[in-house]
Specification:
Length: 177
């Protein structure tokens, strides 16, 4: 019972501090796990997942959590397949703060998101578009080097991992430089 109350407290905290996103039925708050030091987030997520599994009656499972590896894999796919160009992706995976930044940078009529901030400003060139290197910098920040239409560049991106009540780790992209 004590672990259930602890889990419920963590989920309530996460709901209050969560990354906002919108689905087809309206706004929802996604649970997010934060710690004072991002480097300890793997241990925090591991503990939450172990508690969720235990509450489900599943014991003795080794929970392997590597947020850096998982996020690098996730974002490499997002970048290489240009998923960030879809408004649905922005709404689901970006914080309100980043969505506002992308909206304010959008300079055309009708509104939208300046998704080109994820890549170079190139408009023409070879169809090469990929991340060449991505490394964690700490406190949720990652630096990624890329090639976009023959132009090399680099950006920094901040992520907040969170755990759904069902125990699935997802990511909220919170900032982009």
């Amino acid at each position: 019972m004590r672990k259930f109350l602890l889990l419920l407290s963590v989920i309530a905290f996460c709901a209050v501090m969560g990354c906002n996103a919108q689905n087809g039925t309206g706004n929802k708050v996604q649970q997010q796990v934060e710690s004072e030091k991002f480097e300890s987030i793997n241990d925090s997520l591991r503990a939450v997942l172990e508690d969720v599994l235990e509450e489900m009656g599943i014991k003795g499972v080794d929970v392997d959590v590597d947020v850096d590896k998982d996020f690098i894999s996730f974002f490499t796919t997002v970048f290489n397949e240009r998923l960030y160009e879809d408004d649905g992706f922005i709404i689901k995976y970006c914080s309100d703060k980043l969505m506002k930044k992308l909206e304010e940078a959008y300079e055309y009529e009708g509104g939208g998101y300046a998704t080109w901030l994820f890549r170079s400003d190139a408009q023409d060139g070879p169809d090469e578009h990929k991340i060449t290197k991505m490394v964690p910098e700490g406190d949720g920040w990652y630096k990624y080097d890329f090639i976009d239409m023959g132009i090399t560049g680099s950006h920094r991106i901040k992520v907040i991992p969170y755990v759904h009540a069902r125990g699935v780790i997802e990511f909220c992209i919170d900032d982009l430089e």
